[in-house]
Amino acid sequence: MLNMQNISKVYRTDLVQTYALRDFSLEVHEGEFVSVTGPSGSGKTTFLNIAGMLEDFDGGTYMLDGENVSKLSDNARSKIRNQKIGFIFQGFNLIPDLNLWDNVDVPLRYRGFKSEERGRRIKEALEMVGLGSRMKHLPSQLSGGQQQRVAIARAIAGSPRVIMADEPTGNLDSLMARQVMELLENINEAGTTIIMVTHDPELARRAHRNVHVMDGQVSDPAILQQPVRGRQAAVAEN
Amino acid sequence: MFNYYIKLAVLSIRRNPVLSALMVAAIAVGIGAFMTMLTLYHTMSGNPIWWKNDVLYVVGVDTWDPAQPYFEDRPELPPEQMTYRDAKALHESGIPTHKTYTFRVAGVIEPANKDVAPFIEMGRMATSDFFAMFDVPFEYGAAWDARADQTDEFVTVLSKETNDKVFAGENSVGQTIRIDSRDYTVVGVLDEWNPYPKFYDPTTGAFRDSEPFYLPAQLYETLQPQRGGSTNCWKMVNIADFDAFNNSECAWLQYWVQLDTPDQQARYRDFLSAYLQEQAELGRSARPNQILMATPAEWMEIQEVVGDDNRVLVGLSALFLIVCLLNTVGLLLAKFLGRAGEISVRRALGASRLQVFRQQLVECGCIGLLGGVFGLGLSALGLLAVKGMYRYDGRLMMDGEMLMVAFATAVLASIAAGLWPAWQICRVPPAGYLKTQ
Ligand SMILES: Nc1ncnc2c1ncn2[C@@H]1O[C@H](COP(=O)(O)OP(=O)(O)O)[C@@H](O)[C@H]1O
Ligand SMILES: [Mg+2]
Q1: Among A127, A199, A210, B360, whose Cα sits 20 to 30 Å from the Cα of B403?
Q2: Continuous H helices in B338-435
Q3: Quick one: DSSP state of residue B227?
Q4: What is the number of structural domains in chain B?
Q5: Same domain, B37 and B65
Q6: Which residues in chain A are contacts of B347 at CB distance < 8 A?
Q7: At which of B302, B333, B353 does a domain end?
Q8: Quick one: which atom of ligand 1 is closest to the CA of A48?
């Protein structure tokens, strides 16, 4: 599904250059739920942004869904983000002037779906996250947990291959965090690959596999090929 | 996708009402000033008979004062109008396809309907060719026929407005109308006809409306009417003596010919110099080389219908519009950059740069459209002010063409103003604003 080999990423400013990732290698299989942990500043977000094609990288190769995406145009990357990847951010990143319906609609518009299909998908997604009755509400009228569920609805509405979540529960209290986690587990159960950055060890444990990042590298290379467990293992083997 | 962008634009305009209002105002003020000046210019510089510009000629012959030219600054030109005797003499020529001598006369119209009070109007005398050569449109009937140019026939052609007033817009052909205590048979009613500038007689005001009634010039000597144009004389004459005045050197008629071929034009020119030559030999003051044969466009130029200051004003108002647009560029940049976070999210969710760029430009177009609407309102006010300032009594309004120009200018200008800000915003990296949150 996702295969990164020796990825490096350098942030250069006038004074310093920071290696956010160095020799970063990781393989994620179809249907896996991978949690990514590590100390602050270790490169988790950078990894997720590169994996989600939000950012360029400086060295190494990256295969996504069987395609080498190392040197794609901005346009092609936008398309892949739109069609194959669902994002969930720590800060929710809903568009404040748009109601829930229109927020979930955003990626579907760029996808070019017809109006009926968009409508069907938006309804389904919002119902799935339990907000089917609040489609005309603005994000500001919702609690943080509800807002994050809208963001999840937005991420899944286009049926992506993989969901990338950067500390999706970071701004939520533990009850809401658990609800969001359950939602993600359900989505994963339905077949969508999930990569989730978190610093909550309990949530990290609930994933099929945990990847620990230190200083821009996966800290235990043995983890690299660690087999996934459960139902998804069979999928991965295929 | 366009509908989606429109929807987003409307949302965005409403979210930031003050900033949006500032931008709309900047564009409206710029467009208002520009369109006021452009409409003024357009009205003044239009050639209302452009399709016949190369066959119509206003004619002048120089029988003016030998001691000094008629136009101090253009001594090569004859007087702008013609004497009655010259007009009558030139009218004998068979060279032109059409020819007319024409002038304004005053007349009191007494409607048959006693409820409508009599009113005085400036009418026009002309020969029947006037209507043919200037493509004057008729709603009912037609011009009087050539007979009425030879013998006295009390017939008249009414303007649409007069017919509306006196006959309630009905077909009045065959009816009689009383003008200056004489009954005239209506032979024709014009359709809307108001050439701007009034090329066939700019001497009495290039932006006056055309006349409410027309009489055969043949009736001039019988009626001895009150003349209503300007009269220029260089020799003493007793104006009260009708015959003496008609034989004087006073210039007061407009003379027009239609010459369809270069051959006709050359022959007519020769005819005019021969005529002046002959007049000189008869002992009259005449300059045989001083001939005026000007097309309507040339005539508007000679009459300085459009002053240079008008062009300067159009230029200045265009500059002003550009200043307003530069302001708008700044406002747009502020607005767009304030939205970098949202754009970053849209980019992450799969919007391409081009899609973001388009979204911004559609918003600029919407702002421009609003600016255009308010700008039109402002230019309507501006035109009223111009009318007041110059005591300009003609029609000064935006026609369909000017409306199109106004909207196109407003929309294109604001899209142009949005290009740079939109370019800036569409380069916002998809992740840049997400990481810090
Ligand atoms: N845009 C950037 N410019 C410069 N340095 C950056 C930028 N983004 C991240 N970094 C640096 O890269 C390293 C990894 O950052 P990040 O991936 O955000 O860590 P994490 O998400 O694990 O906390 C940090 O040292 C951070 O300061
Ligand atoms: Mg981070």
Answers
A1: B360
A2: 340-348, 353-390, 400-426, 432-435
A3: B
A4: 2
A5: no
A6: 78
A7: B302
A8: 17
CATH top-level class of A32-43+81-237? alpha beta
For chain B, 437 residues long, give each residue's pLDDT as a single digit of tens: 899 999 999 999 998 899 999 999 999 999 999 999 888 888 777 788 989 999 999 999 999 988 888 888 888 899 999 999 999 999 999 999 999 999 999 999 998 777 888 999 999 999 999 999 999 999 999 999 999 999 999 999 999 999 999 999 999 999 999 999 999 999 999 999 989 889 999 888 887 889 999 999 999 999 999 998 889 999 888 878 999 999 999 999 999 999 999 999 999 999 999 999 999 999 888 887 889 999 998 998 888 777 777 788 889 999 999 999 999 999 999 888 888 889 999 999 999 999 999 999 999 999 999 999 999 999 999 988 887 776 555 566 777 888 888 889 988 998 999 999 999 988 888 876 666 54
CA angle B272/B274/B277 to nearest 5° reads: 110
Does residue B42 share a domain with residue B55? no
Domain holding B70, by residue range, is: 50-302
Residue B347 identity (one-letter amino acid) = R
Side-chain half-sphere CA neighbours of A191 within 13 A:
4
Q: Does residue B227 sit in the same domain as residue B311?
A: no
What's the CA-to-centroid distance between A14 and ligand 2, angstroms?
23
Residues B112 and B140 placed together within one structural domain of the fold: yes
**What b/e string do you get for A131-140 counting C-beta neighbours within 10 Å, with b at 16 or more?**
beebbeebbe
Q: Tally helices (H) and strands (E) across chain A.
A: 8, 10
- Residue with the nearest Cα to atom 4 of ligand 1? A11
Helix, strand or coil for residue B287? coil
Complex ipTM? 0.91
- Separation of CA A11 and ligand 2 centre (Å): 15
Check whether residue B214 and residue B181 sit in a common domain.
yes
The answer on B383 and B339 residing in a single domain is yes
Residues with CB under 5 A from ligand 2 (ion): A 45
In this structure, the residue with its CA closest to atom 7 of ligand 1 is: A11
| Shared domain check, B263 and B237 | yes
Report which protein residue has its CA nearest ligand 1's atom 25.
A41
* Helices and strands (DSSP H and E) totals, chain B: 15, 11
**Of the candidates B302, B323, B339, which is a domain's last residue?**
B302
Q: How many CB atoms lie within 10 A of CB B228?
A: 17
CB B141 within 8 A of CB B188: yes
pTM: 0.73
Place of tokens 């932006």: B207
The verdict on B54 and B168 lying in the same domain is: yes
Contact residues on chain B for A170, CB-CB shorter than 8 A: none
